């Protein structure tokens, strides 16, 4: 695809405000079974992908790190330690409440949207976002805002579904469109939500397009790594 998904909800054309409201309803609905569904949909691979993300961040003592769209906090707790400040920032209070039911030491929680982050200019050493950037309301604005809050030399680490290798695409599409919505109905009682999540992946910019959007937002030394034959990509950009 080209451009950004700002005027869409899955394959449907909607205004940005309606997109925002619909996505909020999706994550309120899926919050109780979100982690279980991630395990089922990815055969547990999402845990490995997130581990590779944390290894790329390589958090250090004294750093300030935000996990944006951090949901239930699984990435944040892997980044956290008593010698650094790690915060989950997510617009969905339902998702954060699902995570706060666990004991997650050294993690703070704050409600906030990617387009208006509640952090000062030049205040973060690292900002991570895992499988959340395709759900922002205005993608270019969100990337510009992420650039604003990072310190000079700070990095954005973005883990997101992307475009798989051509030979894998037929099987991947069959699983995505036929199996995942049925799992969503059976396990989470949310078939429409998971149909949206599949469609949103197809509408999202591919690896090269997202890298270009990083550069437009002001990021330097932009690069990406494909995981699992391109099903997922980790984009990294430096301020």
Mean pLDDT: 86
Q: Proportion of β residues?
A: 15-25%
Low-confidence stretches: none
Number of helices: 9
Q: In total, how many domains does the architecture comprise?
A: 1
With strands numbered from the N-terminus, the spatial order across the biggest sheet is: 5-4-3-6-7-9-8
> What's the CATH C level?
Alpha Beta
Number of beta-strand segments: 9
Task: Set down the secondary structure blueprint.
Blueprint: E1 8-9, E2 12-13, H1 16-30, H2 34-42, H3 45-57, E3 64-68, H4 74-79, E4 85-90, H5 93-100, E5 107-111, E6 124-130, H6 139-149, E7 150-161, H7 169-187, H8 191-203, H9 207-216, E8 220-227, E9 232-238
Parallel strand pairs: 3-4, 3-6, 4-5, 6-7
Antiparallel strand pairs: 1-2, 7-9, 8-9
Keywords:
239 residues, alpha/beta, Rossmann fold, two-stranded antiparallel sheet, 44% helix, globular
Give your account of this protein's structure.
With 239 residues, this protein is an alpha/beta fold. It has one domain: Vaccinia Virus protein VP39 (Rossmann fold, 3-Layer(aba) Sandwich). Helix content is 44%, strand content 23%. It has nine helices and nine strands. The chain has a seven-stranded mixed sheet, sandwiched between helices. It has a two-stranded antiparallel sheet with strand order 1-2. A hairpin with a 2-residue loop joins β1 and β2. The model has no long low-confidence stretch (mean pLDDT 86).
């Amino acid at each position: 695809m080209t451009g950004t998904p700002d005027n869409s909800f899955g394959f449907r054309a909607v205004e940005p405000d309606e997109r925002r409201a619909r996505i909020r309803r999706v994550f309120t609905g899926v919050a109780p079974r979100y982690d279980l569904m991630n395990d089922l949909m990815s055969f547990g691979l999402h845990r490995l992908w997130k581990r590779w993300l944390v290894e790329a961040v390589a958090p250090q003592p004294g750093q300030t790190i935000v996990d944006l769209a951090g949901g239930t906090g699984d990435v944040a707790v892997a980044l956290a330690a008593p010698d650094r400040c790690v915060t989950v920032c997510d617009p969905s209070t339902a998702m954060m409440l699902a995570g706060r039911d666990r004991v997650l030491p050294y993690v703070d929680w704050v409600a906030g949207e990617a387009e208006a982050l509640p952090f000062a200019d030049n205040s973060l050493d690292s900002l991570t976002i895992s499988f959340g950037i395709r759900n922002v309301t205005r993608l270019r604005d969100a990337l510009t805002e992420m650039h604003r809050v990072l310190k000079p030399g700070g990095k954005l680490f973005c883990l997101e579904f992307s475009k798989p290798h051509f030979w894998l695409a037929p099987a991947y599409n069959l699983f995505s469109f036929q199996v995942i919505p049925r799992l969503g109905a059976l396990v989470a009682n949310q078939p429409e939500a998971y149909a949206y999540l599949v469609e949103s992946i197809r509408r999202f910019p591919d690896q090269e397009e997202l890298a270009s959007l990083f550069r437009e937002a002001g990021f330097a030394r932009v690069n990406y790594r494909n995981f699992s034959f391109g099903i997922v990509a980790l984009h990294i950009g430096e301020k």
